[in-house]
Each structure stands twice: as structure tokens, then as C-alpha cells.
Amino acid sequence: MKRKLVLLLLCLVMCVSVLTLQIGQGIVSEAASSIYEDKQHLAQLEEKLKNLKNNQSILKDEINSAQGQLQTLLSQKIQLEQQITYLNDEISLTQTLVDEYNEVISSSEEKTLQLERELQRELDDFGTVVEYLYKNGDASALELLISAESFGDYLVMVDFTTHILEYNDKMISGINSTIDEMAVTKEQYVDAQTKLEAYGASLEISRMEQLNKTAELDTLIESSSSGLQYTQQEIDGYSKLEDEIRKEIEELQKQIEEKLAYSDSEFSWPFSSNTKYRISSRFGIRTDGPFTDYEHHNGLDLVASRGTPIHAVAGGVVTYSGMRGAFGNVVFIAHANGLTTIYAHCDSLLVSAGATVLQDQVIAKVGTTGMSSGYHLHFAVTKDGGYVDPEDYLPKSYLD
Questions:
Q1: Range of the domain at 398
Q2: Is residue 36 one of the residues assigned to a domain?
Q3: Gap between the Cα atoms of 400 and 398, Å rounded
Q4: Domain CATH number, residue 112
Q5: What is the tally of helices (H) and strands (E) in the chain?
Q6: 196 and 297: one domain?
Q7: Same domain, residue pair 214 and 353
């Protein structure tokens, strides 16, 4: 009874010790990442750096395109402003012509009024002469001759009377003709002025359209300039982030190199630090279990739940990955110094032959394939082709 109590106490002490070690290992794992995790992080950073470069390249292309568009917009604006200047000059000239036509038409109207007044005077004078001749009758040549002092005076009187009548008639005809011509000319001037005013109105419409286009271009130019500024700020931000990532990559590469130098001297544990496991059989002669007929056990059996991730204990090259007899699904990894590690009875294999793996990289999952009594990892080590005790290479803290 006492012996059983002592054994029970020893088991409790061992369990507490193992638990304490496991907790301690868990804390260390959280504080320091594995080489495999560092490599994964490095790959993520390099991918992120690649994406940053691609984004910067895209943004630079966008800037070049935007600058080209901006130059096109500025060129279009300059052309529009020149067209507006030409339109303003043409509108001003057209208005000047309209004003001059107004003056000409006004002068023509005033001259027509003068002619009409002159015509009226001529008509009045002609009417007076006609009225006089009508009232007094047409003087006979004999009367003119008798009343004349001489024959020469007679001729003068006859010629003067005829001249007056002809002059009045010509004056009236001339004035009427001039008035008619002035009316035609005025009509032409008014028509030309109307056309000029219509042309000026069309020029004003064109000018307003060009001003609207210029305003639209100003909006586009402002938007394009703001976009260029924002894009350049993005590039500057990417450049700053790129510098930070490069610095982080350099630090991580240095960290990996330091860890690789350290990891060459010892193996890590094949499970993560927080994995629950139990050692069911060690290297050497078996004394219990379902396979005692084999007597010598060439590895270390670690009982764990199905699907538990199995990690490579050191970096190396996968020489075999597949089904092999009693081993079931098994992975062989060759390391430096003639060492090879074996991971047997796996449920699933995550690496292929020829692949290079890193320390702590997940290579398989716990199973019970092959000649196995339950879910566990059969871990073995060979040196120069012969099996050796795995415990000579594994961390001692996990083996107690």
C-alpha cells in the first residue's frame, strides 16, 4: 500500500514537472518564433514588398497618364482662350460696324429729310409758277414782243420763262430720284445692319459656349492636379513603407541566420510546445506493449491526438514521403552530419520527396497508419544509415 502511494506521489511530481516544462516551453515559443515561422514571415514581407513595388509602378503609370491628360487639358484651354480672344475681337469689330451703320442710317435719314424739304420748296415754287401762268394765261409771242423794249429783250424773256419751267421740272425729278436712291441705300444699310447684329449674336453664343468649355476644363484641370498630388502622396507613402519593410526584412534575415547557426547544434521538438503528448515507448528493448515480439524499438513513440501537426526537428531535404510497410505513411528527412529523421504512422503527409524543409516546419499530421496500436508519432533517427537513440538529439526538457 505504501509502495503504491509513493509511486502515485512520484507520478504526480513527474506530471507537475512535465506540465511546468510544457508551460515554460509555451512561453518561450510565444516570445521567440521558430525559423520556419520566420521564413514564412520573410516570404510574406517579400510578397508585400513586391506588391508595394507593383502598386508604385501602377501609380507612376497613372501619374504619367494623368500628366499627359493634364497637358492636353492645358493645351485645350489655351486654344479655347485664344478662340475667345478672337471672338471678343470679332464681336467688338462687329459692334463697331453696327454702330457705324447706325450713324450712316441716321445720316441718310437726315439727308432724306433735307431732300424732302427741298423737294417741297421746289414743288411750292413750281406750283407758284404754274399757278401764275394758269391765272394769267400763256403770254403770246406778240405780247412779249410788244412789251419788250427790243428784240433782244424779247428773246431773253422767252428764254427765261422756258428756263424756269425746265429747271423746276429737272429739280423735282432729280430730288425724287435722289430720294428713291436714298431709300434703296437705307434699306440696304438696314439689311446689312440686321445681318451684322444677327452675326454678332451668334458670335456671342459661341463666346459663351467657349467660356463654358473653359470653365469645364478648369474643373478638370483642378481635379487632375489634385489627383496628381494625391497620387504622389500615395507613392511617397509607399516609398516610406517600402523602406520600413526592407529594414524589417534585413533584421529578419539576420535573425534567421542567427537561428540557423544555433539550430545546427540541436534538434527541436516534433510537436508545438502546447501540444499534449505522452511517451509510450522509448528507444531500445521493449518490455511491454502489443509488439514485444520485435524486442528492439528503433525510435521514440509519442502518443498524441489524431491530426496533431508534426514539425521537422531540423532543416533538411525530404528523401522519401509516402506509404512504407509497417511505418505506414512516413517522411524521411536528410540532415547534415549523416543524420536522417523519420516520422512514421502519419495520418496525412504535407511534403513531397525532394522538398527542402525548415526547422519547425509542419510536414505531416499524427495518425495510426501501418503497424500501429493507436494514434501516435513514431520518431526515429539514423546516423550514417544506422538507428541511434533520438533522445540524444532531442531537447531534454521534453523527455523527462
A1: 271-400
A2: no
A3: 6
A4: 1.10.287.1490
A5: 4, 12
A6: no
A7: no
Cell of 322: 509516402
Sign, CA torsion 104/105/111/114: negative
Q: What is the DSSP string of 186-252?
A: HHHHHHHHHHHHHHHHHHHHHHHHHHHHHHHHHHHHHHHHHHHHHHHHHHHHHHHHHHHHHHHHHHH
Give the Å distances, CA to CA, from 247 to 51, 211, 213.
16, 54, 50
| Closest-CA residue to 346 (of 376, 373, 317) | 376
68 neighbors 227 (Cβ within 8 angstroms): no
Q: What is the pTM of this model?
A: 0.41
In a domain, 153, yes or no: no
The pLDDT tens digits for 21-69 are 333 333 233 335 666 777 788 888 888 888 888 887 887 777 777 777 7
Does residue 302 share a domain with residue 379?
Answer: yes
Distance separating alpha carbons of residues 25 and 11, to the nearest angstrom? 21
Neighbour-count burial of 81, counting CB atoms closer than 10 A to its CB (0-12 exposed, 13-18 middle, 19+ buried)? middle
Name the domain count of the chain. Answer: 3
